[in-house]
Amino acid sequence: MFDGLKDKLSGFREDVEESADVEEEPAEGDEPANGDPTSGDPAAGDDAAASGDAEVVAAEAPADAEAEPASDAADDEPSAFQRAKAFATGRIIIEEEDLEEPLWNLEMALLESDVEMSVAEQILDTVREKMLGESRKQVETTGELVESALHDALLDVIAVGQFDFEERIAEADKPVTIVFTGVNGVGKTTSIAKLSEWLADRGYSSVLANGDTYRAGANEQIAEHADRLDRELISHDQGGDPAAVIYDGVEYAAANDVDVVLGDTAGRLHTSDDLMAQLEKIDRVVDPDMTLFVDEAVAGQDAVNRAKEFNDAAEIDGAVLTKADADSSGGAAISVAYVTGKPILFLGTGQGYDDLTLFEPEALVESLLDEE
Ligand SMILES: Nc1nc2c(ncn2[C@@H]2O[C@H](COP(=O)(O)OP(=O)(O)OP(=O)(O)O)[C@@H](O)[C@H]2O)c(=O)[nH]1
């Protein structure tokens, strides 16, 4: 999953390792490109330093490095002594300028992978801070340092607002009403059917309510899922009031001890203003326990923009990203939570009813950074 992004992240690691290697070259006695007088220290010839596995001391680069070379050994800068010591112990120092090109390449890679601009910038800021920050005292290999910086940076943006969905269902008063929003054709209805099955696997009953009274054929489509899964479906004729359908779903669930109401909504009306007004009305009338926004992982930036738009109209509690099994760039999965402040809760991973996976930020980050 998200193989393109995975390759690009691995490219960043190689870039940094290459830049760090350049720092080690003075072992041969060459004058370093940056003219740093300490880089030529003979101690840099240490075997460990010459190996690709050299340890790293992360240090803040002086902001005015060019104007004032490291000769003054100011307390808050990587002093000549620190550098000499680093070389003597087979370590290298990562400076801001070593990261410049790799970070630029990383930014391009993230944008090419459809990561939203503000999210890409946040990732870069965290990576820069983690790799140069004073607080990082541990000594690690270049690869480990990059991996840990990327891990923290990605997790920070992906895990925004994450909560335990099953616990939320377990603790809520029944029936729990969940309304699904999102444009047509992204897999909203299929996701409702999948979630009904996911809930049943965990002992929760559910009823489907078709609030998409706009599109011809919507009743038949959801009825097919309800039949196959043997679930009750509440629907009104085409053109009816969607808020009334979902309201009836809640009444039915309360009267029949059903745990969860899963309400579908239209993905398109005459105008997008009509659609947003309809969602606001459902919000007002039904006051759902959760509103989940559904879109395709493959839609990239479009999915991120739509998530923002829908969240503005009827505040969402989380998102479901479908078609994560298709070859997608990964940008939506990285960006939606940071941009909306609401977590991705599920990934759709196929067309079967069991193809719904709880979204786990830590697992996603680990798989993105897995070198296999
Ligand atoms: N590969 C894959 N296909 C999916 C996934 N989720 C849904 N689909 C397919 O996407 C298509 C559209 O899904 P629907 O559930 O009809 O989409 P919708 O958003 O409800 O569309 P409307 O009913 O038109 O609003 C169907 O063919 C689904 O089988 C997924 O996670 N992976």
UniProtKB/TrEMBL annotation:
Binding, GTP: 182-189, 264-268, 322-325
Bilayer topology term: Peripheral membrane protein
Record keyword Cytoplasm present: yes
Compositionally biased region (Low complexity): 35-62
SUPFAM superfamilies the record matches: Domain of the SRP/SRP receptor G-proteins (SSF47364), P-loop containing nucleoside triphosphate hydrolases (SSF52540)
Enzymatic reactions: GTP + H2O = GDP + phosphate + H(+)
Enzyme Commission no: 3.6.5.4
Localisation per UniProt entry: Cell membrane; Cytoplasm
PANTHER family noted in UniProt: SIGNAL RECOGNITION PARTICLE RECEPTOR SUBUNIT ALPHA (PTHR43134:SF1)
Family, per entry: Belongs to the GTP-binding SRP family. FtsY subfamily.
Name of this protein: Signal recognition particle receptor FtsY
Species of the source: Halorubrum rutilum
